């Protein structure tokens, strides 16, 4: 076998994790769905003028999904998958802590909703990665209600109280 044949065979072997069409389709659909759901939440946040918008939410959801899908493809047992999810939660917690800004007074804290939204977006990515797409879709809808509809209801209440 020539060096080029060895290089070619090694390259093919290195990219063999999606060797059958069914698995490749499943992984692709999960990653695309995670990116879409993260994008829906990110679009809402960006529309509200928040710093963590479309790209941030898409990447958080996509990354969380990828960690779970990759662990699942490697045959991770329940305990190992639990550790993967715990790692995602810790990593996202660190990212979220960076979005919270505390002013001089305790009442002057900003970024809590952004942090919670990023954390929740990661949870949606985990759900998609685990193959719980319907749960992820319902969760995304509920998050949109919390982020977009509830503030509108409170604005109307405030206007009628004055």
Quick structural summary:
Pfam families: MgtC (PF02308). The chain has six helices and two strands, in the order ααααββαα.
Q: Care to describe what's here?
A:
- By secondary structure, this protein is an all-alpha fold.
- The chain has one domain (25-161).
- The chain contains six helices and two strands, in the order ααααββαα.
- It has helices spanning 3-14, 21-47, 54-73, 78-97, 112-129, 133-161, and strands at residues 101-102, 109-110.
- The chain has a two-stranded antiparallel ribbon with strand order 1-2.
- Helix 3 (54-73) runs parallel beside helix 5.
- The model has no long low-confidence stretch (mean pLDDT 91).
What distinguishing features does this structure have?
single chain, 162 residues, mainly alpha, two-stranded antiparallel sheet, Protein MgtC
Give the N-to-C terminal Cα separation: 84 Å
SSE topology string: HHHHEEHH
In DSSP terms (H or I, runs of 4 or more residues), the helix count works out at 6
Radius of gyration: 20 Å
Task: Indicate the proportion of strand residues.
Answer: under 5%
Question: Total strand count, please?
Answer: 2
How many domain regions? 1
Q: Output the structural class.
A: mainly alpha
Shape: elongated
Order of the strands making up the biggest sheet: 1-2
**Major β-sheet profile:** 2 strands, antiparallel
Mean pLDDT: 91
Helical fraction equals over 70%
Poorly predicted runs:
none
InterPro entries: MgtC/SapB/SrpB/YhiD_fam, MgtC_SapB_SrpB_YhiD_N
Protein name: Protein MgtC
Subcellular location: Cell inner membrane; Cell membrane
Keywords: Cell inner membrane, Cell membrane, Membrane, Transmembrane, Transmembrane helix
